[in-house]
Records
---
Amino acid sequence: MEKTTVFDVIERMSALIRSEERKKCTEFGLQPVHLQVLDYLSRCNKYSDTPASLTNYLGMTRGTVSQTVLLLEKKSYVKKTTDTIDRRVIHLSLLPEGKAMLGQARPSELFNQASDFLKQDELGHYDETMVNMLSALQKSNKSHSFGLCKTCQYFTLLPDGHLCGLTKEQLTEEDSGKICQEHRAL
Amino acid sequence: MEKTTVFDVIERMSALIRSEERKKCTEFGLQPVHLQVLDYLSRCNKYSDTPASLTNYLGMTRGTVSQTVLLLEKKSYVKKTTDTIDRRVIHLSLLPEGKAMLGQARPSELFNQASDFLKQDELGHYDETMVNMLSALQKSNKSHSFGLCKTCQYFTLLPDGHLCGLTKEQLTEEDSGKICQEHRAL
DNA sequence: GCTACATATTTCGATTCGCTACTTTATGGC
DNA sequence: GCCATAAAGTAGCGAATCGAAATATGTAGC
């Protein structure tokens, strides 16, 4: 029963954010999916910055993703680079203009205002809870990573070991070399 | 700094849910926005079940929403009813088939599995935190309600007063008659 | 080295989606 | 009654999406 409630609330937050995002999109003449692509590219590692990974992440067809990327390329939001080893694969990367667009389209005002409604000293505690929730969701997500932890953008080297910056989990040296199940799509 | 992290995590959850949802969509031959409409209609009250409210919620144009509703009507997911008092107004309602579709398309498996990764005794605590977060987001959302609290689907009558079932807030008799700022779009 | 198969991506035609501008119908103030 | 306003629908056009076939590169077996 409680289970349902918690995830129901998450769905509500998700819907709210999406609604705000769509409004921003029409403002800039983009579709939500375009922002999703930019967001993905701002977070993926070099093992998952390909059209194939993007296709898997978005759940669209290869053809559509190809067209979408073409559009974003025309607008100078992303750049294509052919892999030097395997010349079949294409690496996608965000260009400065793409990053700028992503920054503008984020519901940052919404978040700024929301934080005013939360007690400042509670935010740290919220943080921990939320990260646990996210971690659980990621673990149950079937879309696994193709990247190594040590190449993840959240990977951090500490004096006393390794740390995943997103889940705040300690990682062993061995773990860092393994394929990451957590961050691929994020 | 902490502020950024918390909302960043929410954005990650949101992105993950959307990704899963899109996969479900293509499975059923629907667009994400169609599910958004069904979801909205399952939660709106009689003051916000109109195409105009839906338009405001989705951030799309009236024409587009009109077409979208037409499509969902053809598929027997929703039903239109003309308002008896103001004959310009149309009320939309979910049909059983629409509810069934909504149930199928929800990332329920994702949530079920995610809950297995969380300690059962912590879920209640998570619940409180998440509801606070959602409440803060809703407060800062500019899309205000057009409905009265007492008509909200989350409104509950208790022996000792009134309760908002979503935010768990106590409501005075007076509050219950006011326009709700919290739940319109949800 | 050649063949067969696998993988990554693109191309293309048909279809659907979404926006803009315009129209229709209904309400309310004067 | 007349006009402004509001809710919803319609038509046409461009963009997005799908599905299937095509292209290009890499891999494995002989």
---
Amino acid sequence: MVIASPENAVSPMDLRHLRYFIAVAEEGNIGRAAARMNISQPPLTRQIQQLEAELGVTLFTRTPRGMELTEAGVLFLEEARNIRSVVEQATERTQRAGQGKLGRLDVAIFGSGILDIIPKLLLAYKGRYPDVKIVLHTMHKGEQIEALRQRRISVGFNRILQPTPDITAELVTTEELLLAVNARHPLAQIEVVPFALLADHPLVLFPTGTRPSFIDTAIGLCRSAGFIPKVSQEVGDAVTAVALVASGFGLCLVPESATVLALPGVVYRPLRGVPEPSRVDLSCIYRSDNKSPILEGFLEEVRAFRATAMAPA
Amino acid sequence: MVIASPENAVSPMDLRHLRYFIAVAEEGNIGRAAARMNISQPPLTRQIQQLEAELGVTLFTRTPRGMELTEAGVLFLEEARNIRSVVEQATERTQRAGQGKLGRLDVAIFGSGILDIIPKLLLAYKGRYPDVKIVLHTMHKGEQIEALRQRRISVGFNRILQPTPDITAELVTTEELLLAVNARHPLAQIEVVPFALLADHPLVLFPTGTRPSFIDTAIGLCRSAGFIPKVSQEVGDAVTAVALVASGFGLCLVPESATVLALPGVVYRPLRGVPEPSRVDLSCIYRSDNKSPILEGFLEEVRAFRATAMAPA
DNA sequence: CGATCACCATACCTTAGAAGTATCGCATGG
DNA sequence: CCATGCGATACTTCTAAGGTATGGTGATCG
């Protein structure tokens, strides 16, 4: 007595069956189809018989002139072609995803970086990888690191960083420091402002938030120059700081990319005699165990950007 | 030197790869996935490696705790599940088509058949095979046979038929002959009309078109009864004939199903003393070499219909 | 009207490759 | 530091795909 198995399929259908079926259906003839498939006729006959047995459906009527599709066969031909194209598309999409050309990149950004450099970088990346969807998240440094650990983002941008074993940082570019000053302020009359003069004027500092950050760089520079800066106000981000400068709230040290902020009444002046380090970095951070080809492609773009951005400097 | 083949795929992907991949992705672990697939662990390891090699994409990151999908792997899992369901649906649809449950049935109909019997039959069929799309074509007998030969229709309905080797006819039902007569006509006063009385009144005959047909049956009956019918008019179909009767154009012999035509002023009277054959057949015709499971299902329905329709008679 | 042709089907053999067994390597955790 | 759990590898076994030869059967043509 034969035990009734839930599925009596001796050999489950696979894509070979479909390829062979399509060939036979299109050629209308097993012999020609076999030639097209680079096999001999008998195995093809058997594969078609197997397919019919597996489906429990007669797909062809055998005539002296060849194989003619039944109604069910006509339907199955459509289905088989559809399956073939679905498989092809799945393959291609997966390959593109594996090459970092398709998918999603979650990027954390912050205040002043977003003013000029990050948009340029993202634009360049998007040009090369148009099918990667970039999702931006505004986060402070602490949040960025947390989000990287939780894999909620793939890469973050920041200025000041201390390396950790699980998070790798990579320089994007460095920027000159400039003085943002109200046009009616006395220092606005000087074309190149000596750094030491800042000792006499209150500064707007930013950002408040996770330390250390740009604010510590600014304070450190003042200390190196031998003075303690007078703080007129601490604010959250560069845009707010420059806005305060525009309304006469004092002076502000900014990275040069902040000059895209053309607020009325604000002028930017280069500094002279700035203590080392006189420049400020913009870096990106990502998981050291990164395996994502999408991030890999993005980092390549970052390196290319750094090469072009820092060569003319 | 190795010859560069157009497709470097050593072993093309097949559905087994997808089944295994889905199992591993869902279990997160080759061992459990192997158990689920009723195979041992090593072959599964190899199949996954093959799939990755074939795609050229790493689908899993191997961790000490198991297999974790990469981004490309996540995408491919979606794709694989989609392919699986497309294949399942294709299989099911094809099987249904093979059982005559899915597809299309082209049916040729004619004038008086469509009045009552054919609609009932089609309705019964549609109840049992809801996914077969019935397409109706109005055709005379000659056209029907031509269309059957060209496979433009699968089945046709008609009354008079002479068998041919390639076209099989099958009785659907037989109907009593009735007299359609205007209510103001003298014969309308008689409850059961003796057939011989028709000799004195002009008849509307139908259809014009391919002979022999119902018109020849009617004329034959009159001859058998010993008179030549006076013809008031020949028309194309039963509806027109009865319409003429309604407007006082004469009498008309109709199959009993024509009584659904309740035109004002028309009454139907049974006949008495009708020469043999006193009944008229409704048959369907189809190709003798029929292989279509859809038509097979339809013919079953026809036979069931005949059994119920002729039992009470 | 019979030989031939063009098909598909079957029988039997060969071989590729999928599955099984045993074992290794490696990281993790008591 | 050893036990555990996991994937990878080496080697064997066996299923089933592919090949060769041949049969069977309608259609075609001299």
